[in-house]
Recover the amino acids of this structure.
């Protein structure tokens, strides 16, 4: 945890310095009488840079906490996989249309993330797609990307 | 318009068929998300933000959103009592004695007193809101840019310091939120900031994408890591109405919880979580039998549950009167108002009395609805816990994706939401409290505008912030808070170092 926190603190600090430079060089700070678009970004950059440094120093001074008993097992690959699926779903929605992409997305989710059986997967995919279509398209009249075969 | 005329007009609006229906819908959805662990009121309101475009009437939309917020406070106690699993953060403390009561076969009494306490406290807070908000709004009419700058910065700082997490992490998130709010056109000079050549980004990030990403999908992604399956409820609920002894034991706890919750709810950053913790501490301290706390003391359920409900209602005061959202869920309601083209603040009472009084009146009705929904129908809500997360998660993903797409009909918003989802997930992994992010995002433009206007008015004289009585007082509180927090931190660190040596 401490390793990741240190990396985050360094990113915050370096990000803050870059924002200060960008605000000063590109946006311009203006003067105290007539402040320009870069003033608040510059102050935020200063804040981030300083906080990042303080955090690094605090991490340097504090000891890594001992492992408190058996921790709950966490499956980090599931959120990453689901994020990839969601990005592909966004892309597919425009490419093949809403209904087709939604069906494929739910099937992929149930098989890859949840490891469900085919029958349950298909039932959830069909019901989910129909419910979303009914709510957003039929009742709320949201215009959705058309299906690839109907273009 | 005086308070009573306003309230009567408010009831005439809230009692229309459509508004009653949406109030009930909000109460039902709120109770449901309160019952379901892993989906809080802020996330749910975020998920439903696109619906506000479709609902059309701003008063109806806000009535529903408010219902979700205070409804979640009612529902949150159910899983805390029956499963020792808080449905949402404000019910964490209810687990301590609520679950012990359930283990002793008194789940019904615990659920009953939680619902009745919530109803009483919610109503007390709405009465307070009715009488407290209009004079505060009138007072706020005197606010100029320096006062708004002082108030918004103090509000943001309070949100960070009162969140209970790391202050450094909270401040970092605060600055990130402010910077995200600056993406796009500068409202004063018209310069383009942080767009990196992207034309779509010139309009800035949409609040809906940020809220749905960080709170909705971010929470889903984090929960997907968990291997813990929801426990099936086997506890017998029993008689739901508390006995006369239960009532006698809890009446003062409910009263104290209502007062504590009301005042903590007004403070930006206060809200339901802190008020429930404060109420529990007060009940334990002043109890004749503090040793019973943790063993199933009914006051340990009545006080915190009353406090979190009172706080959820009173947190509408800074929103409706000053235009300052005090916590993440209220920031979502702030955004819902902005979506409808309504700026919350001191002019709301005069310019949109229908919204101001309609929402307040709906809270009286909503509290009564929630009592009916939560007392006799508690068994029904428990059944919801049987829905597996594996089904719930993809349905929420579908809902957010089409919801965010519907705002501007562009796929870019989906990618933008996924970026915020990854950010929200990362924040949870690194133990950052995401609450200051939406607050900074919605208050960012106000902070910048008021800072630059103040400097323009004063000709660059920084004493404008301290020479005016209201802004001077607020800045003094701001400074005291920073000095106090720093001194507290140093003292704690030094004390911590001394202990092992002695």
């Amino acid at each position: 945890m401490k390793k990741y926190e240190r990396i985050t603190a360094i990113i915050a600090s370096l990000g803050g310095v870059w924002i200060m430079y960008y605000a000063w060089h590109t946006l311009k700070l203006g003067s105290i009488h007539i402040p320009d678009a870069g003033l608040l970004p510059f102050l935020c950059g200063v804040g981030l840079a300083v906080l990042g440094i303080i955090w690094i120093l605090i991490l340097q001074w504090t000891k890594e906490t001992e492992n408190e008993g058996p921790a709950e097992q966490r499956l980090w690959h599931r959120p990453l996989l689901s994020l990839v699926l969601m990005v592909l779903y966004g892309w597919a929605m425009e490419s093949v249309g809403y209904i087709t992409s939604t069906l494929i997305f739910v099937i992929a989710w149930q098989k890859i993330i949840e490891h469900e059986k085919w029958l349950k997967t298909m039932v959830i995919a069909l019901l989910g797609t129909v419910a979303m279509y009914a709510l957003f398209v039929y009742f709320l009249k949201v215009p959705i990307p058309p299906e690839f075969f109907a273009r | 318009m005086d308070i009573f005329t306003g309230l009567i007009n408010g009831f005439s609006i809230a009692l229309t068929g459509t508004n009653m229906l949406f109030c009930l819908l909000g109460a039902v959805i709120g109770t449901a998300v309160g019952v379901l662990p892993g989906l809080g009121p802020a996330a749910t309101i975020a998920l439903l933000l696109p619906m506000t475009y479709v609902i059309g009437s701003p008063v109806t939309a806000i009535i529903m959103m408010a219902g979700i917020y205070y409804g979640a406070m009612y529902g949150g106690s159910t899983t805390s009592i029956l499963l020792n699993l808080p449905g949402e953060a404000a019910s964490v403390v209810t687990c301590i004695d609520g679950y012990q009561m359930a283990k002793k076969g008194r789940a019904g009494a615990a659920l009953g007193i939680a619902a009745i306490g919530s109803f009483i406290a919610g109503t007390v807070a709405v009465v307070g809101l009715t009488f407290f908000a209009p004079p505060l709004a009138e007072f706020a009419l005197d606010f100029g840019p320096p006062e708004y700058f002082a108030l918004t910065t103090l509000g943001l700082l309070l949100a960070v310091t009162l969140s209970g997490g790391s202050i450094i992490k909270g401040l970092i998130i605060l600055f990130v939120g402010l910077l995200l709010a600056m993406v796009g056109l500068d409202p004063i000079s018209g310069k383009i900031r942080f767009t990196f050549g992207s034309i779509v980004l010139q309009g800035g990030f949409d609040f809906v994408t940020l809220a749905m990403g960080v709170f909705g999908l971010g929470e889903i992604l984090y929960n997907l890591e968990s291997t813990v399956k929801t426990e099936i409820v086997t506890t017998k609920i029993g008689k739901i109405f508390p006995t006369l002894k239960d009532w006698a034991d809890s009446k003062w706890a409910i009263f104290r919880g209502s007062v504590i919750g009301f005042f903590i709810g007004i403070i930006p950053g206060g809200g339901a979580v802190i008020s429930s913790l404060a109420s529990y501490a007060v009940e334990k301290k002043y109890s004749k039998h503090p040793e019973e706390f943790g063993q199933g003391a009914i006051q340990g359920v009545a006080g915190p549950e009353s406090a979190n409900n009172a706080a959820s209602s009173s947190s509408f005061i800074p929103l409706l009167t000053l235009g300052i959202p005090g916590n993440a869920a209220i920031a979502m309601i702030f955004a819902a108002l902005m979506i409808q083209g309504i700026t919350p603040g001191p002019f709301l009472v005069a310019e949109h009395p229908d919204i101001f009084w309609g929402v307040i009146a709906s809270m009286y009705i909503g509290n009564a609805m929630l009592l009916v929904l939560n007392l006799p129908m508690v068994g029904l809500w428990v059944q919801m816990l049987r829905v597996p997360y594996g089904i719930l998660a993809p349905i929420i993903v579908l809902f957010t994706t089409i919801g965010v797409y519907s705002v501007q009909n562009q796929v870019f918003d989906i990618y933008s939401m996924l970026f915020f989802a990854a950010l929200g997930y990362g924040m949870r992994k690194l133990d950052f409290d995401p609450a200051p992010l939406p607050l900074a995002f919605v208050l960012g433009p106000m902070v910048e505008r008021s800072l630059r206007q103040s400097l323009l008015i004063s000709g660059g004289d920084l004493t404008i912030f301290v020479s005016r009585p209201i802004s001077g007082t607020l800045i003094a509180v701001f400074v005291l808070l920073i000095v106090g927090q720093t001194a507290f931190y140093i003292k704690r660190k030094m004390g911590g170092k001394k202990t092992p040596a002695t």
About this structure: Chain B touches chain A through 59 residues (CB under 8 Å). Residues 345 and 393 of chain B are 36 Å apart (CA to CA). Chain B is about 75% helix and 0% strand. Strands of chain B lie at 184-185, 192-193.
